[in-house]
């Protein structure tokens, strides 16, 4: 089973098959690294503004560990933990590793933005998320969110409605922090 291929048209089957074959509970970390690269491209222009670095390559090298670190922090610690904590309201039974793998698998479509960012870089534009095609970004974000709901539903044995409610409540603290920050 190639997850990067089967996740598009058979997401529930892919997630359940990955969970059943993953008996040693290993982490599926490749999509998290690709998401970290997307974040690194996005924050490299901010890093250049803060540290007044003129060369893009040095900016990218400096922002690379920050982007990958933020991806692992958000997608491998905070969001899965919040989903598990709020899932206990409806007696959801999943482990942290299962939720980390679900979050990791759910960002696979969003990682296609990396290709768009590289194309922007080749043509001399800043590879930030503001420069990425908005329609592509929206469609991939919605598809990633849908995959997250399918994965939470599958791992915690919820209906899609309860899984949606669980994910939305889990995102609520992050949304409040984001609103207070601005």
| Succession of helices and strands | HHHHHHHH
**Beta fraction:** under 5%
- Total DSSP helices: 8
Q: What's the end-to-end separation, in Å?
A: 43 Å
Q: Share of helix among residues?
A: over 70%
* Computed structural class: mainly alpha
Q: Mind describing the biggest β-sheet?
A: none
Q: Tell me, rounded to a whole number, the average pLDDT.
A: 87
Shape: globular
Describe this structure in words.
This protein has 182 residues and is an all-alpha fold. Helix content is 74%, strand content 0%. It has eight helices and no strands. Helix 3 (30-51) packs across helix 4 and helix 4 crosses helix 8. The longest helix has 32 residues, at 56-87. The radius of gyration is 17 Å and the shape is globular. The termini are far apart. The mean pLDDT is 87.
Explain briefly what this protein structure is.
It contains 8 helices and no strands. It has 182 residues and is mostly helical.
Secondary structure topology:
Elements: H1 3-6, H2 11-21, H3 30-51, H4 56-87, H5 96-106, H6 113-122, H7 134-156, H8 160-181
Task: Provide keyphrases for this structure.
single chain, 182 residues, mainly alpha, 8 helices, 74% helix, 0% strand, globular
